[in-house]
Design brief:
The complex is a heterodimer of chains A (95) and B (334). With 95 residues, chain A is an alpha+beta fold. Chain A is built from three helices and five strands. Chain B is of the alpha/beta class and 334 residues long. Chain B has nine helices and ten strands. The two termini of chain B are 34 Å apart. Classes of the chains: A alpha+beta (95), B alpha/beta (334).
C-alpha cells in the first residue's frame, strides 16, 4: 500500500486523516481510489474534466508528478504521495 | 579539475582578468549582479557531476532580489507610474523588501512593505535601515497573507504603486537579461540549472535565456515542504500560483523538507566555507537529486542569499530535533 499524505486544508474532507494508505499502480489510480473513499475530495483535487486542479500539487517521493508522467506515473507500494495546495513559494518563502 | 573556460567577451579565456577589472562602479545600483560562480565539489554526491554555485549573497543588499527589485523599480519609472506622491508597496517575506528599500531610498521613492509577522528580526531591521515602513500580515498565512493584504491596500489608496514581483514580467526579465547570460559566460558547460521556486522569477528568466542559448539544458526547481502550521489556508481556493510562473519552463520540481535543507546548509558552511541562507540548503538538496538523475555533467545552482539574516533563529547551531517545532511553522525560515 502506498502512503498518501493529506494537507491540513483537505483533512476535513478526508475523515480528519493526516495520511491514508491506498492501493494502486499509478498516481491516477491512487487519486481515483482516494476520491471514491472520500467523495468530498473530488471537487477539491480534480477539475470537471478529471484533470488535477491547478492549485493542487502532487509529489511522488518528493518529485512533482507534472514533470513525471502525470497521472500515468507508476507507483510502487513503498512510495509516498504528498498532496499540497499551491502557495506562494511553497510556504512563505521567496527566491 | 580545471575551471570552466570563461567566455566573457572582455576576458581572455582561462586567464585572470587582473586586479580591479570590472570591479569599479559609479553607483551601488551598477554593482548589482556580476556575482561569482564557485565550484562546490564536496556537495556533489556523484563523482562525474560537477556542481557550481552562483553566490547571490554578493549582491549589494545581500540577495538575488537586488536584480529583480532594480528591474521592477526602473520599469515603473519608465512607465511613468511613479510620481512625486507615489509610494512603492510590495508584499515580501524579506529579501525583495530589503532590496526595494535600498533602491527606493537611493532613487528617492517612499517604500512600504507588507511582511508576515514571523519573519526574522534582521529582515525587518534591514528594511527599516534603508528607510522602508513595515506593515505586518499574519505569519500563519505566509506570503499568501502578505499578498492579499498588499493587494487590498493598493486597491484602497491610489498613491500606492505595487511593483508586484509575482505578476510583473520585469522580475523574470532581470534574470533573462543578467543572471542567465552570466551563468553561460562563466560556465559554458552547464547541463542543468537548479534554483529555488518562490515567485518563479529566477527560474523563468534563466530558463528562457538558457533554453534559447543552449538547447537541451535542463531546468529544475527546489520547493520547500511547508510545515503543518504554515499551511494556514481555509480552502484550496486560497492557494496561489504566481502569475509569472509558467510550469512549461521547468523540467522537474523537487519538494525539500526544511530539515533536509538546514542539514545541507550546514554541510555547505562546513565543507565549502560558504555562508548561505536556508533556501540555499533546499537548492543543494535538489541539486544532489539532479546530479544522481543526470549521472555525469555540470550543474549550476543559484544560492539566493547569505546567512546573516537567519542567525537569530539558530539556523546554524541548534539541535535539529529541538528545532522540529519551529521547522513545522513557528518561524518563517525563508
Amino acid at each position: 500500500m502506498s502512503v498518501v499524505r493529506i494537507p491540513p486544508v483537505l483533512r476535513a474532507n478526508a475523515g480528519g486523516n493526516k495520511q491514508v494508505e491506498v492501493d494502486g499502480v499509478t498516481v491516477g489510480d491512487i487519486l481515483s481510489q482516494l476520491v471514491t473513499r472520500y467523495p468530498g475530495l473530488q471537487s477539491q483535487l480534480l477539475t470537471d474534466e478529471g484533470e488535477l486542479n491547478r492549485f493542487v500539487n502532487v509529489y511522488l517521493n518528493d518529485q512533482d508528478i507534472r514533470y513525471l508522467q502525470e497521472r500515468a506515473t507508476p507507483v510502487d507500494a513503498r512510495d509516498t504521495l504528498i498532496i499540497l495546495p499551491a502557495m506562494a513559494g511553497g510556504a512563505g518563502r521567496e527566491s | 579539475m580545471a575551471l570552466p573556460t570563461p567566455a566573457a567577451p572582455d576576458q581572455v579565456p582561462g586567464q585572470d582578468p587582473g586586479p580591479g577589472h570590472g570591479r569599479a562602479y559609479r553607483d551601488i545600483l551598477d554593482a548589482i549582479g556580476h556575482t561569482p560562480l564557485v565550484e562546490i565539489p564536496r556537495m556533489s554526491p556523484v563523482a562525474d557531476v560537477r556542481i557550481f554555485a552562483k553566490l547571490e549573497m554578493a549582491n549589494p543588499t545581500g540577495s538575488v532580489k537586488d536584480r529583480a527589485a532594480k528591474y521592477l523599480v526602473e520599469d515603473l519609472e519608465r512607465d511613468g507610474r511613479l510620481t512625486a506622491n507615489s509610494v512603492i508597496l510590495e508584499p515580501t517575506s524579506g529579501n525583495t523588501g530589503i532590496a526595494l528599500a535600498m533602491i527606493g531610498q537611493r532613487k528617492g521613492h517612499r517604500v512600504v512593505l507588507v511582511m508576515p509577522d514571523n519573519v526574522t528580526r534582521e529582515r525587518i531591521q534591514m528594511a527599516e535601515l534603508f528607510g522602508a515602513e513595515i506593515i505586518h500580515s499574519p505569519g500563519a498565512l505566509g506570503s499568501n497573507g502578505a499578498i492579499t493584504l498588499a493587494k487590498r491596500m493598493a486597491a484602497s489608496d491610489p498613491r500606492y504603486v505595487m511593483p508586484y514581483q509575482y505578476g510583473n514580467q520585469a522580475n523574470p526579465r532581470a534574470h533573462e537579461e543578467t543572471t542567465g547570460p552570466e551563468i553561460l559566460a562563466d560556465c559554458p558547460e552547464v547541463d542543468a540549472f537548479v534554483a529555488g521556486l518562490g515567485t518563479g522569477g529566477t527560474l523563468m528568466g534563466v530558463s528562457r535565456f538558457l533554453r534559447r542559448a543552449k538547447p537541451g539544458v535542463k531546468i529544475y526547481a527546489a520547493e520547500p515542504l511547508p510545515g503543518e502550521n504554515v499551511q494556514g489556508l481555509r480552502s484550496l481556493d486560497e492557494g496561489f500560483v504566481p502569475e509569472i510562473f509558467d510550469p512549461g519552463q521547468l523540467d522537474g520540481k523537487f519538494l525539500v523538507s526544511n530539515r533536509d535543507a538546514i542539514a545541507a546548509l550546514r554541510s555547505l558552511v562546513r565543507q565549502e566555507g560558504i555562508f548561505a541562507g536556508p533556501s540555499s540548503g533546499a537548492v543543494l538538496v535538489a541539486a544532489a537529486r539532479v546530479a544522481r538523475l543526470i549521472g555525469h555533467g555540470t550543474v549550476v545552482t543559484l544560492l539566493p542569499d547569505g546567512g546573516w539574516k537567519y542567525l537569530s533563529a539558530g539556523t546554524y547551531t541548534r539541535d535539529l530535533d529541538e528545532m522540529e517545532e519551529d521547522l513545522e511553522g513557528g518561524v518563517n525560515w525563508w
